[in-house]
UniProtKB/TrEMBL annotation, chain A:
<protein>
    <submittedName>
        <fullName>Pyruvate dehydrogenase E1 component beta subunit</fullName>
        <ecNumber>1.2.4.1</ecNumber>
    </submittedName>
</protein>
<keyword id="KW-0560">Oxidoreductase</keyword>
<dbReference type="InterPro" id="IPR033248">
    <property type="entry name" value="Transketolase_C"/>
</dbReference>
<dbReference type="InterPro" id="IPR029061">
    <property type="entry name" value="THDP-binding"/>
</dbReference>
<dbReference type="InterPro" id="IPR009014">
    <property type="entry name" value="Transketo_C/PFOR_II"/>
</dbReference>
<feature type="domain" description="Transketolase-like pyrimidine-binding">
    <location>
        <begin position="11"/>
        <end position="186"/>
    </location>
</feature>
<dbReference type="Pfam" id="PF02780">
    <property type="entry name" value="Transketolase_C"/>
</dbReference>
<dbReference type="GO" id="GO:0004739">
    <property type="term" value="F:pyruvate dehydrogenase (acetyl-transferring) activity"/>
</dbReference>
<keyword id="KW-0786">Thiamine pyrophosphate</keyword>
<keyword id="KW-0670">Pyruvate</keyword>
<dbReference type="InterPro" id="IPR005475">
    <property type="entry name" value="Transketolase-like_Pyr-bd"/>
</dbReference>
<dbReference type="Pfam" id="PF02779">
    <property type="entry name" value="Transket_pyr"/>
</dbReference>
Length: 341, 372
């Protein structure tokens, strides 16, 4: 490590998340953590490792097994002045707590005429690729982004996870923080070199609503998020050797969505591949396409390619699961089609 | 077809007794546990209870009339539940925080919410009639039972802050079948949070009788969650007031959450969109009219030799004044401006929402003068 004024360390995404939470807990004693297995276990995807030992059970609370219970309680605590970080272990479990999320967390501020704020962060693990079946492998960010009143962030790398977590905790709105299990850098997941990266020391905030160009390119744009950013970068590196210059836009936030960044990259390349691990229909990929053609249908010189889940539940069988996921092979084929190779 | 019996089953032993301090004749019934909570009440306090209940009944009737005349979109009458609401809320202190359902007009009003502000929400003139943080009562919750979880979490926050305030949540007998209410009791008990669960068992969830929700007394269920529980005659304002004092003291002393089942009756409709004659028999209503909470207190005032006529006159005057003022305020209340449509979706005006607002309002402006 260097001794520069703004040093960075290499951390995995999970550790970067935890570090950001811990820093905010030091800074503000109203920040607390609630959820299942967030204490001694440290979060089953290591999102709260070490927090119990550091901050104690008053602020890092293992809860009874009721998602609607602890999310509803977190909402109440937030209206009391706390700033809870509440973990929904798998986003797939949203079905048992959606009333509290959709009808309360997202609407109390509106329905109270702006008088009551709900400053909480709902963290949740998303994504498949490790044979966890149809009820433990979904992304569902489109489902959360669909509803007004929530902000939705989806980091792809350690630095963004830290910076977006800090921004989310400080935000006075409810923020849904969706982390892909495949980007956490967990030893028991498929090895992913991009799940470890430099994270700035000290104050580090990534503003919610700003996309990032993860790789600049001239020929074709991949607009994507989360683990698919890693695949897109891998494909871009591979295709660079074949003379195709790929730009990769990492959305980072779905609400607010950085429409200007999407329009800018499409205006630059004229060719668009959207990679979305969520279901294809009625979701993010359609929304991106609509925003582009509403602005200027002439920006695109070739039809849009979508690489998404083909509207099937995520299979448990490895061979079937990988047939449904947006794999590097599918992304590469879509890029080549877009550039007519 | 499965037929669910709606008859109460005879529970062999009622685990929790029903406290009553005033019987139907208005006579004081001794109660060793609760007597001392009402020992300090003066005749003047009782007269204030009477005035509150009379004014509240008038507020409720006026709101029903305003709805019938097209001035409100909807109203959920509380007729018959005046003692349950006034008796309980008068036992709270200002720094306690209340999470009500949509029928707790008396609780909000007694907390200092103006009647016209309360009705303005039902008129659609504004989304919130009051700032919950100023009067320590949340907006009225429409989703059945959802607010109980917010109270549990609020209570956990109180405990974290180390004050002796209490979070109080109101809900009905029907709500006790919702998972949220059970889950809220689990959480409050697990964390020993200072939460009072106040159930007004008004016998009906729209058209469903309470026996369809629970085959035991609701209070007996609460006890199973580990909550200190009381069951009271909800039309007896003294019993409600006393039990609420007892429950709040328990919470303030750090002894954990509490539960009160106030047994009362919804004399009116579920809402103004409902016609209860379709599902309940007239003689049931007559039986409950004999237990009317206001009549009961009037009888008691007679029993103790108070100048009832002057107290009733004073209450009537206050009710007349409120009704006239309320009607004038409501009928003069303008519709909200269309440009409020986008207000408060988020706590700040972030750029995409500002653009969306401007674009949409410009689009709407094209339709001006064309009606809806």
């Amino acid at each position: 490590m260097s001794s520069n004024a703004a040093p960075t360390r290499r951390l995995n995404t999970a550790k970067a998340m935890v570090e950001a939470i811990a820093r905010e807990m030091e800074r503000d004693e109203d920040v607390c953590v609630m959820g299942e297995d967030v204490g001694a276990y440290g979060g089953i995807f290591s999102s709260t490792t070490g927090l119990l030992e550091r901050f104690g059970p008053q602020r890092v609370m293992d809860t009874p097994i009721s998602e609607t219970g602890f999310i509803g309680a977190a909402i109440g605590a937030a209206t009391e002045g706390m700033r809870p970080i509440v973990e929904l272990m798998f986003v797939d479990f949203f079905g048992v707590c959606m009333d509290q999320i959709y009808n309360h967390m997202a609407k109390i501020h509106y329905e109270s005429g702006g008088n009551v704020k709900v400053p909480l962060v709902l963290t949740t693990a998303v994504g498949g690729g490790y044979s966890d079946g149809a009820q433990h492998s979904q992304c569902l960010w489109g489902t959360f982004a669909h509803l007004p009143g929530l902000k939705v962030v989806v980091p792809s790398n350690p630095a963004d996870a830290a910076g977006l977590m800090t921004a989310a905790i400080r935000d006075d709105n409810p923020v849904v923080f969706m982390f892909h299990k495949g980007v956490q850098g967990l030893p028991w997941m498929a090895k992913n070199r991009r799940s470890i990266g430099p994270v700035p020391e000290g104050e580090h905030v990534v503003p919610i609503g700003k996309a990032a160009v993860a790789r600049e390119g001239r020929d074709v744009s991949i607009v994507t998020l989360s683990l698919s950013v890693h695949h897109a970068l891998d494909v871009a590196e591979e295709l660079a050797a074949e003379g195709v210059d790929v730009e990769v836009l990492d959305l980072r936030s779905l609400v607010p969505l950085d429409t200007e960044a999407i329009l800018a990259t499409v205006a630059k390349t004229g060719r668009l591949v959207i990679v979305d691990e969520d279901y294809q229909s009625f979701g993010l990929s359609g929304e991106i396409a609509a925003r582009i053609v509403e602005h200027d249908p002439g920006l695109l010189t070739v039809p849009i390619q979508r690489v998404a889940n083909p509207d099937v539940p995520i299979p448990y069988a490895r061979a079937l699961e990988y047939a449904a996921l947006p794999t590097p092979a599918r992304i590469k084929a879509a890029v080549l089609k877009a550039v007519a190779r | 077809m499965l037929i669910v019996s709606t008859k109460h089953i005879d529970v062999a032993a009622e685990c929790i007794p029903t406290h009553q301090l005033l019987n139907v004749a208005g006579e004081r019934v001794p109660d060793r546990e609760l007597d001392h909570y009402v020992a300090k009440l003066t005749e003047s306090d009782l007269a204030d209870f009477l005035r509150d209940m009379v004014v509240l009944r008038r507020l409720d009737n006026e709101a029903t009339a305003l709805q019938r005349q097209g001035e409100l979109g909807l109203w959920a009458p509380l007729l018959g539940q005046e003692a349950a609401q006034i008796g309980s809320v008068r036992a709270t202190r200002d720094s306690d925080f209340i999470f009500p359902s949509y029928r707790e007009h008396g609780v909000a009003w007694a907390r200092g919410v103006k009647a016209e502000d309360l009705l303005s929400v039902w008129r659609g003139a504004q989304s919130s009639g009051w700032n919950p943080n100023e009067v320590n009562i949340a907006c009225q919750q429409i989703v059945i039972g959802a607010q109980t979880l917010h109270a549990a979490g609020y209570g956990m926050g109180i405990k974290f802050d180390g004050t002796d305030d209490v979070a109080i949540t109101y809900f009905g007998d029907g709500a006790t079948s919702q998972g949220d209410v059970s889950e809220a009791m689990v959480f409050a008990a697990s964390y020993q949070a200072p939460v009072l669960f106040f159930c007004q068992n008004n016998q009906w969830a729209i058209s469903e009788p309470v026996a369809l929700q629970s085959r035991t007394q609701i209070a007996d269920r609460a006890q199973g969650f580990g909550l200190k529980t009381w069951r009271v005659d909800g039309n007896d304002i003294l019993a409600v007031y006393a039990a609420t004092q007892a429950a709040l003291a328990h919470c303030r002393n750090g002894l954990g959450p509490t539960f009160i089942e106030a047994v009362t009756y919804r004399m009116g409709s579920h809402t103004t969109a409902d016609d209860p004659t379709r599902y309940r028999k007239p003689d049931e209503l007559e039986q409950w009219k004999a237990k009317d909470p206001i009549d009961r207190l009037v009888k008691y005032l007679h029993v103790i030799g108070a100048d009832v006529q002057s107290y009733e006159q004073r209450a009537q005057n206050a009710a007349d004044e409120l009704a006239a003022q309320l009607r004038a305020a409501i009928t003069a209340m303008p519709d909200p401006a269309v440009d409020e449509l986008f207000d408060n979706v988020y706590s700040e005006a972030h750029e995409p929402s500002v653009r969306a607002r401007e674009g949409y309002l410009g689009y709407l402006a094209e339709f001006e003068g064309e009606g809806h």
